[in-house]
Design a protein that fits this description.
The complex is a heterodimer.
Chain A lengths: L16 H22 L3 H4 L14 H9 L2 H32 L5 H9 L6 H14 L7 H8 L4 H12 L4 H8 L4 H12 L1 H17 L2 H6 L8 H11 L4 H36 L1
Helix pairs in contact in A: 1-14, 3-14, 4-7, 4-8, 4-11, 4-13, 9-10, 11-14, 13-14
Chain B lengths: L3 H36 L16 H7 L4 H32 L6 H13 L2 H11 L6 H8 L14 H11 L2 H12 L3 H9 L4 H12 L1 H15 L4 H6 L16 H11 L3 H29 L9
Helix pairs in contact in B: 3-7, 3-8, 3-11, 4-8, 11-14, 13-14
The chains are: A mainly alpha, B mainly alpha.
Protein backbone atom coordinates (compact mmCIF):
# COMPACT_ATOMS: atom_id res chain seq x y z
CA UNK A 1 0.00 0.00 0.00
CA UNK A 2 1.34 3.41 -0.87
CA UNK A 3 1.82 5.78 2.02
CA UNK A 4 0.64 9.36 1.85
CA UNK A 5 3.41 11.79 0.96
CA UNK A 6 5.17 12.82 4.15
CA UNK A 7 4.39 16.49 4.35
CA UNK A 8 4.74 18.41 7.57
CA UNK A 9 1.48 17.59 9.32
CA UNK A 10 -0.68 20.43 10.41
CA UNK A 11 -2.66 20.47 13.61
CA UNK A 12 -5.83 20.90 11.58
CA UNK A 13 -6.65 17.24 12.02
CA UNK A 14 -6.37 17.22 15.81
CA UNK A 15 -10.11 16.73 16.24
CA UNK A 16 -9.75 13.33 14.54
CA UNK A 17 -7.73 11.87 17.39
CA UNK A 18 -10.42 11.55 20.08
CA UNK A 19 -12.82 9.50 17.89
CA UNK A 20 -9.97 7.38 16.54
CA UNK A 21 -8.58 6.64 19.98
CA UNK A 22 -12.05 5.83 21.26
CA UNK A 23 -12.75 3.53 18.29
CA UNK A 24 -9.41 1.76 18.65
CA UNK A 25 -10.14 1.26 22.37
CA UNK A 26 -13.60 -0.17 21.64
CA UNK A 27 -12.24 -2.49 18.94
CA UNK A 28 -9.45 -3.75 21.19
CA UNK A 29 -11.52 -4.02 24.36
CA UNK A 30 -12.79 -7.59 23.69
CA UNK A 31 -9.16 -8.77 23.56
CA UNK A 32 -8.38 -7.03 26.82
CA UNK A 33 -11.46 -8.47 28.50
CA UNK A 34 -10.58 -11.96 27.29
CA UNK A 35 -7.06 -11.60 28.71
CA UNK A 36 -8.30 -10.15 31.98
CA UNK A 37 -10.91 -12.86 32.49
CA UNK A 38 -8.34 -15.55 31.74
CA UNK A 39 -6.21 -14.34 34.66
CA UNK A 40 -8.79 -14.29 37.46
CA UNK A 41 -10.52 -17.02 39.47
CA UNK A 42 -14.11 -18.13 39.02
CA UNK A 43 -15.28 -16.07 42.02
CA UNK A 44 -14.24 -12.74 40.51
CA UNK A 45 -16.27 -13.50 37.38
CA UNK A 46 -19.55 -13.49 39.24
CA UNK A 47 -18.92 -10.29 41.14
CA UNK A 48 -21.71 -7.75 40.63
CA UNK A 49 -19.16 -5.03 39.83
CA UNK A 50 -16.42 -6.40 37.60
CA UNK A 51 -13.06 -4.73 38.04
CA UNK A 52 -11.16 -3.47 35.02
CA UNK A 53 -7.83 -4.68 36.35
CA UNK A 54 -7.40 -8.26 37.62
CA UNK A 55 -6.80 -8.18 41.38
CA UNK A 56 -4.61 -11.20 41.88
CA UNK A 57 -3.74 -12.37 38.37
CA UNK A 58 -2.48 -15.90 37.93
CA UNK A 59 -1.85 -18.27 35.07
CA UNK A 60 -3.48 -21.23 36.80
CA UNK A 61 -6.53 -21.07 34.51
CA UNK A 62 -4.26 -21.80 31.57
CA UNK A 63 -2.78 -24.84 33.22
CA UNK A 64 -6.24 -26.16 34.11
CA UNK A 65 -7.90 -25.31 30.78
CA UNK A 66 -5.15 -26.63 28.56
CA UNK A 67 -4.75 -29.90 30.46
CA UNK A 68 -8.47 -30.69 30.84
CA UNK A 69 -8.57 -31.41 27.12
CA UNK A 70 -5.69 -32.53 24.90
CA UNK A 71 -5.18 -29.06 23.45
CA UNK A 72 -1.60 -29.94 22.52
CA UNK A 73 -2.96 -32.68 20.29
CA UNK A 74 -5.55 -30.30 18.77
CA UNK A 75 -2.85 -27.75 18.12
CA UNK A 76 -0.66 -30.29 16.32
CA UNK A 77 -3.69 -31.49 14.30
CA UNK A 78 -4.53 -27.94 13.20
CA UNK A 79 -0.90 -27.34 12.33
CA UNK A 80 -0.62 -30.53 10.24
CA UNK A 81 -3.77 -29.64 8.31
CA UNK A 82 -2.79 -26.02 7.76
CA UNK A 83 0.82 -26.72 6.73
CA UNK A 84 -0.11 -29.48 4.29
CA UNK A 85 -2.88 -27.29 2.86
CA UNK A 86 -0.46 -24.42 2.32
CA UNK A 87 2.13 -26.69 0.70
CA UNK A 88 -0.44 -28.19 -1.65
CA UNK A 89 -1.86 -24.81 -2.54
CA UNK A 90 1.49 -23.18 -3.24
CA UNK A 91 2.70 -26.05 -5.39
CA UNK A 92 -0.41 -26.87 -7.39
CA UNK A 93 -1.80 -23.33 -7.75
CA UNK A 94 1.52 -21.99 -9.00
CA UNK A 95 1.94 -24.93 -11.42
CA UNK A 96 -1.48 -24.24 -12.91
CA UNK A 97 -0.89 -20.50 -12.97
CA UNK A 98 2.38 -21.19 -14.81
CA UNK A 99 0.54 -23.21 -17.43
CA UNK A 100 -2.18 -20.59 -17.87
CA UNK A 101 0.24 -17.67 -18.15
CA UNK A 102 3.53 -18.89 -19.68
CA UNK A 103 2.84 -22.01 -21.73
CA UNK A 104 1.05 -21.83 -25.06
CA UNK A 105 -1.36 -24.64 -25.79
CA UNK A 106 -4.41 -24.87 -27.95
CA UNK A 107 -7.24 -25.08 -25.42
CA UNK A 108 -5.63 -22.89 -22.81
CA UNK A 109 -8.07 -19.99 -22.65
CA UNK A 110 -11.10 -22.28 -22.95
CA UNK A 111 -9.90 -24.54 -20.14
CA UNK A 112 -9.07 -21.50 -18.00
CA UNK A 113 -12.53 -20.01 -18.40
CA UNK A 114 -14.14 -23.35 -17.52
CA UNK A 115 -11.95 -23.67 -14.43
CA UNK A 116 -12.80 -20.10 -13.41
CA UNK A 117 -16.42 -21.17 -12.85
CA UNK A 118 -15.17 -22.77 -9.64
CA UNK A 119 -13.87 -19.45 -8.35
CA UNK A 120 -16.78 -18.27 -6.24
CA UNK A 121 -18.31 -21.69 -5.61
CA UNK A 122 -19.54 -21.80 -2.01
CA UNK A 123 -18.53 -24.81 0.09
CA UNK A 124 -22.10 -25.58 1.14
CA UNK A 125 -22.98 -26.48 -2.47
CA UNK A 126 -20.40 -29.24 -2.66
CA UNK A 127 -20.08 -30.39 0.94
CA UNK A 128 -22.70 -33.14 0.89
CA UNK A 129 -21.38 -35.02 -2.18
CA UNK A 130 -17.83 -34.51 -0.91
CA UNK A 131 -18.85 -36.04 2.41
CA UNK A 132 -20.45 -39.02 0.63
CA UNK A 133 -17.37 -39.45 -1.55
CA UNK A 134 -14.89 -39.41 1.36
CA UNK A 135 -17.11 -41.74 3.34
CA UNK A 136 -17.27 -44.13 0.43
CA UNK A 137 -13.46 -44.07 0.25
CA UNK A 138 -13.26 -44.66 4.00
CA UNK A 139 -11.36 -41.41 4.48
CA UNK A 140 -13.72 -39.48 6.74
CA UNK A 141 -12.52 -38.91 10.28
CA UNK A 142 -9.05 -38.14 8.96
CA UNK A 143 -7.23 -35.13 7.58
CA UNK A 144 -7.40 -36.15 3.89
CA UNK A 145 -10.77 -34.46 3.13
CA UNK A 146 -9.44 -31.21 4.60
CA UNK A 147 -6.12 -31.27 2.76
CA UNK A 148 -6.74 -33.00 -0.57
CA UNK A 149 -8.54 -30.18 -2.42
CA UNK A 150 -5.51 -27.92 -1.90
CA UNK A 151 -3.33 -30.32 -3.89
CA UNK A 152 -5.71 -30.17 -6.86
CA UNK A 153 -5.28 -26.57 -7.90
CA UNK A 154 -5.40 -25.02 -4.45
CA UNK A 155 -8.44 -22.86 -5.11
CA UNK A 156 -9.09 -21.15 -8.42
CA UNK A 157 -8.78 -17.77 -6.80
CA UNK A 158 -5.15 -18.41 -5.90
CA UNK A 159 -4.42 -19.55 -9.46
CA UNK A 160 -6.00 -16.32 -10.66
CA UNK A 161 -3.83 -14.18 -8.35
CA UNK A 162 -0.61 -16.00 -9.18
CA UNK A 163 -1.38 -15.93 -12.91
CA UNK A 164 -1.74 -12.14 -12.74
CA UNK A 165 1.64 -11.98 -11.04
CA UNK A 166 3.35 -14.34 -13.50
CA UNK A 167 2.03 -12.29 -16.44
CA UNK A 168 4.09 -9.40 -15.13
CA UNK A 169 7.38 -11.32 -15.41
CA UNK A 170 9.11 -10.63 -18.77
CA UNK A 171 8.61 -13.64 -21.11
CA UNK A 172 12.15 -13.23 -22.50
CA UNK A 173 13.43 -14.81 -19.30
CA UNK A 174 11.91 -18.23 -19.88
CA UNK A 175 12.33 -18.06 -23.65
CA UNK A 176 16.07 -17.60 -23.22
CA UNK A 177 16.23 -20.46 -20.72
CA UNK A 178 14.29 -22.77 -23.06
CA UNK A 179 16.67 -21.82 -25.92
CA UNK A 180 19.54 -22.89 -23.70
CA UNK A 181 17.88 -26.26 -23.27
CA UNK A 182 16.24 -25.87 -19.87
CA UNK A 183 13.12 -27.96 -19.26
CA UNK A 184 9.78 -26.34 -18.36
CA UNK A 185 10.05 -27.86 -14.93
CA UNK A 186 13.37 -26.10 -14.46
CA UNK A 187 12.04 -22.79 -15.75
CA UNK A 188 9.16 -23.09 -13.33
CA UNK A 189 11.24 -23.96 -10.27
CA UNK A 190 14.35 -21.90 -10.95
CA UNK A 191 13.06 -18.79 -12.70
CA UNK A 192 9.35 -18.20 -12.07
CA UNK A 193 9.02 -19.33 -8.46
CA UNK A 194 12.04 -17.43 -7.09
CA UNK A 195 10.81 -14.25 -8.79
CA UNK A 196 7.32 -14.66 -7.31
CA UNK A 197 8.17 -14.80 -3.63
CA UNK A 198 5.96 -11.83 -2.61
CA UNK A 199 2.89 -13.29 -4.32
CA UNK A 200 3.58 -16.76 -2.91
CA UNK A 201 3.91 -15.33 0.60
CA UNK A 202 0.54 -13.58 0.28
CA UNK A 203 -1.19 -16.70 -1.05
CA UNK A 204 0.48 -18.88 1.57
CA UNK A 205 -0.52 -16.59 4.44
CA UNK A 206 -4.16 -16.23 3.39
CA UNK A 207 -4.38 -19.99 2.82
CA UNK A 208 -2.84 -20.76 6.20
CA UNK A 209 -5.28 -18.49 8.02
CA UNK A 210 -8.30 -19.83 6.12
CA UNK A 211 -7.33 -23.40 6.97
CA UNK A 212 -6.41 -22.59 10.58
CA UNK A 213 -9.70 -20.75 11.17
CA UNK A 214 -11.96 -23.18 9.30
CA UNK A 215 -14.81 -24.62 11.32
CA UNK A 216 -17.45 -26.09 8.97
CA UNK A 217 -15.24 -28.57 7.06
CA UNK A 218 -13.60 -30.11 10.15
CA UNK A 219 -17.02 -30.27 11.79
CA UNK A 220 -18.35 -32.33 8.90
CA UNK A 221 -15.40 -34.60 8.22
CA UNK A 222 -13.90 -35.23 11.65
CA UNK A 223 -15.67 -37.14 14.39
CA UNK A 224 -13.19 -38.62 16.85
CA UNK A 225 -11.75 -36.38 19.51
CA UNK A 226 -8.16 -37.40 18.82
CA UNK A 227 -8.37 -35.84 15.38
CA UNK A 228 -10.10 -32.61 16.40
CA UNK A 229 -8.65 -29.35 15.18
CA UNK A 230 -8.30 -26.46 17.62
CA UNK A 231 -11.64 -24.92 16.63
CA UNK A 232 -13.49 -28.20 17.22
CA UNK A 233 -11.68 -28.53 20.53
CA UNK A 234 -12.78 -25.04 21.52
CA UNK A 235 -16.39 -25.89 20.75
CA UNK A 236 -16.20 -29.10 22.75
CA UNK A 237 -14.73 -27.14 25.64
CA UNK A 238 -17.56 -24.63 25.31
CA UNK A 239 -20.11 -27.43 25.57
CA UNK A 240 -18.46 -28.97 28.62
CA UNK A 241 -17.64 -25.88 30.64
CA UNK A 242 -20.48 -23.46 30.14
CA UNK A 243 -20.31 -20.56 32.58
CA UNK A 244 -16.72 -21.29 33.60
CA UNK A 245 -15.61 -18.24 31.73
CA UNK A 246 -12.16 -18.00 33.30
CA UNK A 247 -11.18 -21.38 31.82
CA UNK A 248 -12.95 -20.66 28.56
CA UNK A 249 -11.16 -17.35 28.13
CA UNK A 250 -7.81 -18.95 28.93
CA UNK A 251 -8.40 -21.56 26.23
CA UNK A 252 -9.61 -18.90 23.78
CA UNK A 253 -6.59 -16.74 24.55
CA UNK A 254 -4.26 -19.63 23.77
CA UNK A 255 -6.10 -20.28 20.50
CA UNK A 256 -5.99 -16.62 19.50
CA UNK A 257 -2.27 -16.25 20.20
CA UNK A 258 -0.86 -17.90 17.02
CA UNK A 259 -3.07 -15.68 14.82
CA UNK A 260 -1.88 -12.59 16.68
CA UNK A 261 1.74 -13.58 16.16
CA UNK A 262 1.16 -14.11 12.44
CA UNK A 263 -0.51 -10.71 12.23
CA UNK A 264 2.34 -8.93 13.98
CA UNK A 265 5.00 -10.62 11.87
CA UNK A 266 3.30 -10.43 8.49
CA UNK A 267 0.86 -7.51 8.69
CA UNK A 268 2.20 -5.90 5.52
CA UNK A 269 1.68 -9.02 3.37
CA UNK A 270 -1.74 -9.68 4.84
CA UNK A 271 -3.08 -6.20 4.14
CA UNK A 272 -1.56 -6.34 0.66
CA UNK A 273 -3.26 -9.67 0.07
CA UNK A 274 -6.64 -8.34 1.14
CA UNK A 275 -6.33 -5.35 -1.17
CA UNK A 276 -5.34 -7.70 -4.01
CA UNK A 277 -8.35 -9.93 -3.44
CA UNK A 278 -10.57 -6.88 -3.10
CA UNK A 279 -9.54 -4.92 -6.14
CA UNK A 280 -9.02 -7.70 -8.61
CA UNK A 281 -11.68 -10.12 -7.45
CA UNK B 1 9.72 -19.44 -35.06
CA UNK B 2 9.67 -22.49 -32.78
CA UNK B 3 9.68 -25.85 -34.51
CA UNK B 4 6.66 -28.12 -34.68
CA UNK B 5 8.05 -30.56 -32.16
CA UNK B 6 8.94 -27.75 -29.75
CA UNK B 7 5.38 -26.48 -29.92
CA UNK B 8 4.05 -29.97 -29.37
CA UNK B 9 6.37 -30.31 -26.42
CA UNK B 10 5.08 -27.03 -24.99
CA UNK B 11 1.45 -28.13 -25.39
CA UNK B 12 2.15 -31.38 -23.53
CA UNK B 13 3.79 -29.40 -20.74
CA UNK B 14 0.82 -27.02 -20.72
CA UNK B 15 -1.66 -29.81 -20.11
CA UNK B 16 0.61 -31.47 -17.57
CA UNK B 17 1.07 -28.30 -15.50
CA UNK B 18 -2.65 -27.53 -15.61
CA UNK B 19 -3.58 -31.13 -14.76
CA UNK B 20 -4.05 -30.58 -10.99
CA UNK B 21 -6.75 -27.95 -11.42
CA UNK B 22 -8.44 -29.78 -14.29
CA UNK B 23 -8.71 -32.89 -12.13
CA UNK B 24 -9.63 -30.74 -9.12
CA UNK B 25 -12.38 -29.03 -11.08
CA UNK B 26 -13.88 -32.41 -12.03
CA UNK B 27 -13.52 -34.02 -8.58
CA UNK B 28 -14.29 -31.10 -6.27
CA UNK B 29 -16.40 -28.71 -8.38
CA UNK B 30 -18.28 -30.10 -11.38
CA UNK B 31 -18.86 -33.59 -9.97
CA UNK B 32 -20.18 -32.46 -6.59
CA UNK B 33 -22.38 -29.71 -8.12
CA UNK B 34 -24.00 -32.28 -10.39
CA UNK B 35 -24.28 -34.72 -7.51
CA UNK B 36 -25.96 -32.10 -5.32
CA UNK B 37 -28.53 -31.50 -8.05
CA UNK B 38 -29.22 -35.24 -8.37
CA UNK B 39 -29.28 -35.83 -4.61
CA UNK B 40 -31.81 -33.04 -4.21
CA UNK B 41 -34.26 -35.17 -6.21
CA UNK B 42 -33.86 -38.17 -3.90
CA UNK B 43 -34.33 -39.22 -0.29
CA UNK B 44 -30.67 -40.21 -0.03
CA UNK B 45 -29.48 -41.03 3.45
CA UNK B 46 -26.41 -42.83 4.72
CA UNK B 47 -26.81 -46.61 4.71
CA UNK B 48 -30.05 -46.93 2.72
CA UNK B 49 -30.75 -47.24 -0.99
CA UNK B 50 -32.05 -43.92 -2.32
CA UNK B 51 -35.43 -43.44 -3.96
CA UNK B 52 -36.16 -40.93 -6.71
CA UNK B 53 -38.57 -38.30 -5.42
CA UNK B 54 -38.73 -35.73 -8.19
CA UNK B 55 -39.34 -32.30 -6.74
CA UNK B 56 -40.83 -33.54 -3.48
CA UNK B 57 -37.92 -32.22 -1.37
CA UNK B 58 -38.51 -28.76 -2.77
CA UNK B 59 -42.26 -28.93 -2.35
CA UNK B 60 -41.87 -29.95 1.26
CA UNK B 61 -40.07 -26.68 2.02
CA UNK B 62 -42.80 -24.52 0.58
CA UNK B 63 -45.85 -26.35 1.88
CA UNK B 64 -44.93 -25.41 5.45
CA UNK B 65 -44.54 -29.07 6.36
CA UNK B 66 -41.26 -27.91 7.88
CA UNK B 67 -41.58 -24.60 9.76
CA UNK B 68 -37.84 -24.47 10.46
CA UNK B 69 -37.21 -23.80 6.77
CA UNK B 70 -39.15 -20.55 6.87
CA UNK B 71 -37.59 -19.68 10.21
CA UNK B 72 -34.14 -20.05 8.69
CA UNK B 73 -35.05 -18.03 5.59
CA UNK B 74 -36.39 -15.28 7.80
CA UNK B 75 -33.35 -15.29 10.09
CA UNK B 76 -30.94 -15.26 7.14
CA UNK B 77 -32.78 -12.44 5.37
CA UNK B 78 -32.83 -10.33 8.52
CA UNK B 79 -29.19 -11.08 9.21
CA UNK B 80 -28.04 -10.13 5.69
CA UNK B 81 -30.22 -7.05 5.34
CA UNK B 82 -29.00 -5.66 8.67
CA UNK B 83 -25.40 -6.76 8.43
CA UNK B 84 -24.40 -5.70 4.93
CA UNK B 85 -25.46 -2.02 5.05
CA UNK B 86 -24.15 -1.62 8.61
CA UNK B 87 -20.79 -3.14 7.72
CA UNK B 88 -20.37 -1.20 4.48
CA UNK B 89 -21.25 2.09 6.18
CA UNK B 90 -18.98 1.51 9.17
CA UNK B 91 -16.01 0.26 7.16
CA UNK B 92 -16.33 3.19 4.77
CA UNK B 93 -16.51 5.63 7.68
CA UNK B 94 -13.46 4.07 9.32
CA UNK B 95 -11.55 4.24 6.03
CA UNK B 96 -12.43 7.95 5.66
CA UNK B 97 -11.16 8.59 9.19
CA UNK B 98 -7.93 6.76 8.47
CA UNK B 99 -7.41 8.38 5.08
CA UNK B 100 -6.27 11.62 6.68
CA UNK B 101 -2.96 13.14 7.61
CA UNK B 102 -2.75 11.77 11.10
CA UNK B 103 0.14 10.43 13.08
CA UNK B 104 0.34 6.71 13.88
CA UNK B 105 -2.04 5.88 11.06
CA UNK B 106 -0.59 2.37 10.76
CA UNK B 107 -1.21 1.75 14.44
CA UNK B 108 -4.87 2.81 14.25
CA UNK B 109 -5.35 0.74 11.11
CA UNK B 110 -3.83 -2.30 12.83
CA UNK B 111 -6.09 -1.86 15.87
CA UNK B 112 -9.25 -1.65 13.78
CA UNK B 113 -8.16 -4.55 11.57
CA UNK B 114 -7.06 -6.89 14.36
CA UNK B 115 -10.46 -8.56 15.05
CA UNK B 116 -10.52 -9.95 11.49
CA UNK B 117 -7.39 -12.00 12.05
CA UNK B 118 -8.80 -13.97 14.98
CA UNK B 119 -10.55 -17.30 14.25
CA UNK B 120 -14.28 -16.60 14.05
CA UNK B 121 -14.96 -19.51 16.38
CA UNK B 122 -12.75 -17.89 19.01
CA UNK B 123 -14.17 -14.39 18.64
CA UNK B 124 -17.66 -15.88 18.88
CA UNK B 125 -16.74 -17.30 22.29
CA UNK B 126 -15.34 -13.92 23.35
CA UNK B 127 -18.61 -12.23 22.33
CA UNK B 128 -20.68 -14.77 24.21
CA UNK B 129 -18.83 -13.73 27.34
CA UNK B 130 -18.99 -9.96 26.67
CA UNK B 131 -22.73 -10.16 26.00
CA UNK B 132 -23.58 -12.71 28.67
CA UNK B 133 -26.84 -11.32 30.13
CA UNK B 134 -26.08 -11.66 33.86
CA UNK B 135 -22.33 -11.31 34.27
CA UNK B 136 -21.20 -9.91 30.91
CA UNK B 137 -19.40 -6.59 30.92
CA UNK B 138 -21.73 -5.03 28.32
CA UNK B 139 -24.79 -5.47 30.49
CA UNK B 140 -22.83 -4.25 33.50
CA UNK B 141 -22.24 -0.96 31.65
CA UNK B 142 -25.88 -0.82 30.56
CA UNK B 143 -27.13 -1.40 34.12
CA UNK B 144 -24.73 1.23 35.42
CA UNK B 145 -26.24 3.70 32.97
CA UNK B 146 -29.65 2.85 34.40
CA UNK B 147 -30.97 1.17 31.24
CA UNK B 148 -32.77 -2.19 31.05
CA UNK B 149 -30.21 -4.87 30.12
CA UNK B 150 -31.16 -6.88 26.99
CA UNK B 151 -30.81 -10.65 26.82
CA UNK B 152 -28.69 -10.40 23.62
CA UNK B 153 -27.99 -13.90 22.28
CA UNK B 154 -30.49 -15.49 24.64
CA UNK B 155 -33.56 -13.74 23.23
CA UNK B 156 -35.36 -14.42 19.97
CA UNK B 157 -35.66 -10.71 19.28
CA UNK B 158 -32.07 -9.63 19.87
CA UNK B 159 -30.03 -12.64 18.78
CA UNK B 160 -29.62 -11.58 15.14
CA UNK B 161 -28.88 -7.90 15.91
CA UNK B 162 -26.21 -9.06 18.39
CA UNK B 163 -24.51 -11.08 15.65
CA UNK B 164 -24.75 -8.09 13.32
CA UNK B 165 -23.10 -5.92 15.96
CA UNK B 166 -20.29 -8.43 16.07
CA UNK B 167 -19.96 -8.22 12.27
CA UNK B 168 -19.52 -4.47 12.53
CA UNK B 169 -16.52 -5.23 14.74
CA UNK B 170 -15.24 -7.52 11.96
CA UNK B 171 -15.29 -5.02 9.07
CA UNK B 172 -11.51 -4.62 8.90
CA UNK B 173 -11.33 -6.36 5.54
CA UNK B 174 -13.63 -3.92 3.77
CA UNK B 175 -11.99 -1.04 5.61
CA UNK B 176 -8.59 -1.97 4.17
CA UNK B 177 -10.09 -2.33 0.69
CA UNK B 178 -11.83 1.07 0.99
CA UNK B 179 -8.63 2.64 2.24
CA UNK B 180 -6.72 1.41 -0.80
CA UNK B 181 -9.48 2.69 -3.08
CA UNK B 182 -9.50 6.11 -1.38
CA UNK B 183 -5.76 6.41 -1.87
CA UNK B 184 -6.27 5.72 -5.55
CA UNK B 185 -8.54 8.74 -6.08
CA UNK B 186 -6.53 11.26 -8.15
CA UNK B 187 -5.59 14.31 -6.08
CA UNK B 188 -6.14 16.72 -8.93
CA UNK B 189 -9.89 16.13 -8.72
CA UNK B 190 -9.92 17.37 -5.13
CA UNK B 191 -7.69 20.28 -6.07
CA UNK B 192 -10.02 21.25 -8.92
CA UNK B 193 -12.92 21.30 -6.50
CA UNK B 194 -10.94 23.40 -4.03
CA UNK B 195 -10.30 25.95 -6.76
CA UNK B 196 -14.04 26.12 -7.33
CA UNK B 197 -14.59 26.69 -3.62
CA UNK B 198 -15.89 23.23 -2.66
CA UNK B 199 -15.75 22.13 0.97
CA UNK B 200 -15.09 18.71 2.49
CA UNK B 201 -18.72 17.66 2.07
CA UNK B 202 -18.67 18.55 -1.65
CA UNK B 203 -15.48 16.54 -2.03
CA UNK B 204 -17.15 13.51 -0.50
CA UNK B 205 -20.30 13.76 -2.62
CA UNK B 206 -18.86 14.84 -5.97
CA UNK B 207 -15.45 13.18 -6.03
CA UNK B 208 -14.95 10.47 -3.43
CA UNK B 209 -18.26 8.62 -3.72
CA UNK B 210 -18.38 8.48 -7.55
CA UNK B 211 -14.72 7.53 -7.79
CA UNK B 212 -14.94 4.66 -5.33
CA UNK B 213 -18.42 3.48 -6.35
CA UNK B 214 -16.95 0.30 -7.92
CA UNK B 215 -15.44 -0.56 -4.53
CA UNK B 216 -18.72 0.12 -2.71
CA UNK B 217 -20.45 -2.09 -5.26
CA UNK B 218 -17.88 -4.87 -4.80
CA UNK B 219 -18.18 -4.66 -1.01
CA UNK B 220 -21.97 -4.85 -1.10
CA UNK B 221 -22.03 -7.84 -3.48
CA UNK B 222 -19.40 -9.86 -1.62
CA UNK B 223 -20.99 -8.77 1.66
CA UNK B 224 -24.31 -10.34 0.66
CA UNK B 225 -22.65 -13.47 -0.73
CA UNK B 226 -20.80 -13.94 2.56
CA UNK B 227 -23.71 -13.02 4.84
CA UNK B 228 -25.98 -15.56 3.15
CA UNK B 229 -23.37 -18.21 3.93
CA UNK B 230 -22.73 -17.26 7.56
CA UNK B 231 -22.39 -20.36 9.68
CA UNK B 232 -19.83 -20.13 12.46
CA UNK B 233 -21.57 -17.53 14.66
CA UNK B 234 -24.86 -19.38 15.19
CA UNK B 235 -23.07 -22.75 15.22
CA UNK B 236 -20.87 -21.65 18.11
CA UNK B 237 -22.99 -19.10 19.94
CA UNK B 238 -26.52 -20.51 19.80
CA UNK B 239 -26.07 -24.24 19.24
CA UNK B 240 -24.97 -27.18 21.32
CA UNK B 241 -24.75 -30.93 20.87
CA UNK B 242 -28.52 -31.37 20.93
CA UNK B 243 -29.89 -28.19 19.50
CA UNK B 244 -28.99 -25.79 16.72
CA UNK B 245 -30.12 -22.29 15.90
CA UNK B 246 -31.15 -20.62 19.14
CA UNK B 247 -34.56 -20.23 20.76
CA UNK B 248 -37.39 -21.03 18.34
CA UNK B 249 -34.92 -21.33 15.42
CA UNK B 250 -34.48 -17.56 15.61
CA UNK B 251 -30.79 -17.79 14.70
CA UNK B 252 -30.97 -20.83 12.45
CA UNK B 253 -29.03 -19.22 9.62
CA UNK B 254 -29.54 -21.01 6.33
CA UNK B 255 -26.22 -22.88 6.08
CA UNK B 256 -26.72 -24.07 9.66
CA UNK B 257 -30.14 -25.31 8.52
CA UNK B 258 -28.48 -27.23 5.65
CA UNK B 259 -25.85 -28.59 8.02
CA UNK B 260 -28.49 -29.68 10.52
CA UNK B 261 -30.66 -31.40 7.90
CA UNK B 262 -27.66 -33.21 6.44
CA UNK B 263 -25.46 -34.13 9.38
CA UNK B 264 -27.76 -34.15 12.40
CA UNK B 265 -30.95 -35.49 10.77
CA UNK B 266 -29.15 -37.50 8.03
CA UNK B 267 -31.49 -36.10 5.39
CA UNK B 268 -28.83 -35.71 2.73
CA UNK B 269 -31.38 -35.46 -0.10
CA UNK B 270 -33.45 -32.75 1.55
CA UNK B 271 -30.33 -30.87 2.60
CA UNK B 272 -29.10 -30.95 -1.00
CA UNK B 273 -32.36 -29.39 -2.16
CA UNK B 274 -31.91 -26.65 0.42
CA UNK B 275 -28.34 -26.10 -0.82
CA UNK B 276 -29.53 -25.84 -4.44
CA UNK B 277 -32.08 -23.19 -3.42
CA UNK B 278 -29.49 -21.01 -1.68
CA UNK B 279 -27.06 -21.46 -4.55
CA UNK B 280 -29.77 -20.26 -6.95
CA UNK B 281 -30.50 -17.24 -4.74
CA UNK B 282 -26.82 -16.29 -4.57
CA UNK B 283 -26.44 -16.74 -8.33
CA UNK B 284 -29.58 -14.69 -9.01
CA UNK B 285 -28.55 -11.95 -6.65
CA UNK B 286 -25.10 -11.68 -8.21
CA UNK B 287 -26.65 -11.51 -11.67
CA UNK B 288 -29.08 -8.83 -10.49
CA UNK B 289 -26.29 -6.72 -9.00
CA UNK B 290 -24.19 -6.88 -12.12
CA UNK B 291 -27.17 -6.21 -14.35
CA UNK B 292 -27.86 -2.98 -12.51
CA UNK B 293 -24.29 -2.02 -11.73
CA UNK B 294 -23.90 0.02 -14.91
CA UNK B 295 -26.43 2.60 -13.81
CA UNK B 296 -25.04 2.81 -10.27
CA UNK B 297 -21.30 2.59 -10.68
CA UNK B 298 -18.89 4.98 -12.31
CA UNK B 299 -16.04 3.31 -14.20
CA UNK B 300 -13.20 5.55 -15.20
CA UNK B 301 -12.54 5.41 -18.94
CA UNK B 302 -16.12 4.76 -19.96
CA UNK B 303 -18.42 1.82 -19.52
CA UNK B 304 -17.14 -1.69 -19.29
CA UNK B 305 -19.57 -4.23 -20.49
Amino acid sequence: MSEMPRKPRSLAGWFLYPPLILLAAVFLFPFYWMLKTSLVDLGSIFEPTPSLIPRSPSLSNYVTALTMFPFGRFFVNSLIVAVLTVMGTLLSASMCAFSFSRLRWKWRSKVFSVVLTGMMLPFFVVMIPQFIMWRFLGLTDGFTPLIAPAWFGGGVFNIFLLRQFFLGIPPELDEAAIMDGASYLRVFFQIILPLSKPALIVVGLLTFLASWNDYLAPLIFITSEQKYTLMLGLNMFLGGYTAQWNYLMAATCAIVLPSLVIFLVAQRYLLEGIVMTGLKG
Amino acid sequence: MPSRSARRHEAVAGWAFAAPVILGWIIFVAGPVLATLLLSLSDYTVGASPRFLGLENYQRFFTSADPSFFASVRATALYSLLSVPACVAVSFGLALLLNTKIRMRGLFRAALFLPVIIPLAASSVIWMWLFQPDFGVVNFVIRTLGLPPPLWLASERTVIPTMVLMNVWLTGNSMVIFLAALQGVPRHLYEALEVDGGNAFHKLIYVTLPMISPTIFFTVVTGFINALQAFVQPAIMTSDAYHAGGPNNSSLLYVLFIYREAFRFSKLGGASAAAVLLFAVIGGLTWFFFRFSRSLVYYEGGERS
